[in-house]
Structures are given as C-alpha cells and as structure tokens.
Design goal:
29% strand; 5 helices; Nuclear Transport Factor 2, Chain: A; alpha+beta; 6-stranded mixed sheet
C-alpha cells in the first residue's frame, strides 16, 4: 500500500511540474507571419496619420527616442526635434502622403525587434523607406526611419551635377563631426 501511495504521489508531483511546450517550425512561421501582419498594419497607420495630418497618432507610433532621417543631408531628426519641425505641417493639414507599394519585413529572433524596407508612392514620386521597429507595451513602434528619393541609375550623372555645390559644402561641415 505504501508503495502505491508513493507511486501515486510521484506521478502527481511529476505531472504538476511538467510544462507543455509546443515549439514547432510551423507554429514559429505562423507567429512570424502574425507579427509581420501587425508590423504592416502599424506602418500603414503611421503613414495614414501623416496623410491625414494627425500629429498625435503619427508620433504615438514612434518610440520616444525615435529618429527620422529625411532626404536632405541635414535631416537627421531626433524625435523631439522632428516633432518641432513637423508640427506646423501637421497643423496646416498638409504633412506628407506615403503609400507603400512594396514592403519587406524582417523579424529578429526575440520577436521584439524588426526592420523593413519599403518602396513608396509619394508626392516626390517613388521613394524608398527603411527602418527599425521595436515592440513596446505590445505595440510596434518606429524607432528609426530613413527616407530616400529613388533615382534611376541612368539619371545619376545629372543628379550628381545638381548636388555638387551643396554636397561639397555639407562634406566640409560634416567631416568635422566625426572623430574616432
């Protein structure tokens, strides 16, 4: 009888301490697909907030320490400076209108960090955006965004000529900022 009680107790204790973990490749793929879907939704809402000049929604979808790098060499905006710069545009009801026509999303293995690139239809014609998102309080937020104007390769020589004077001035100005 004593042996039966010991066996029963060991079965009960063992079953109570057992964790059921199902970690198959299929569940991981579904999980990643769901994350990518949520990221796409967050990015679409971020772009929509700008198109609708909704300042609060736009900046609520960025991290507090977020960075926006614009198309001009001087546009490396930390969040607070970017808010101050863009507020008049939002207040006037004319921010910017970006529509993603292609997007690739990549999720880091811890599933709290992701990066992406996107081709955009904008008021500047085709542009490319790329960035990093962080999962904060179960919401995907843009932590870093880079906007670039696309230039067909055959037009690069013309663009270089257009930028030559300005770029040489920026070159001198920015060289002094980089020190070991």
């Amino acid at each position: 009888m004593r042996a039966i009680i010991l066996i029963l107790l060991s079965v009960i204790f063992t079953s109570c301490n057992t964790e059921a973990k199902i970690d198959t490749e299929a569940t991981q793929i579904v999980s990643t697909q769901e994350i990518k879907k949520n990221i796409n939704t967050a990015l679409d809402l971020w772009h929509k907030a700008a198109a609708e000049a909704n300042f609060d929604n736009y900046f609520n979808l960025m991290t507090n320490d977020g960075v926006f790098i614009g198309t001009d060499a001087t546009e490396n905006w930390q969040n607070q400076a970017f808010k101050a710069f863009s507020k008049p545009y939002f207040d006037n009801g004319k921010a910017w209108h970006f529509t993603a026509i292609e997007r690739n999303v990549y999720v880091y293995k811890n599933q709290k960090l992701a990066w992406f690139d996107e081709l955009l239809d904008t008021q500047m014609k085709l542009c490319r955006g790329s960035g990093v998102l962080k999962l904060e309080n179960n919401q995907w937020k843009v932590a870093h965004y880079v906007l670039s104007i696309t230039i067909p390769n055959e037009n690069v020589p013309e663009v270089i000529k257009l930028k030559a004077t300005t770029d040489s001035l920026y070159n001198e100005k920015f060289k002094t900022r980089i020190k070991g």
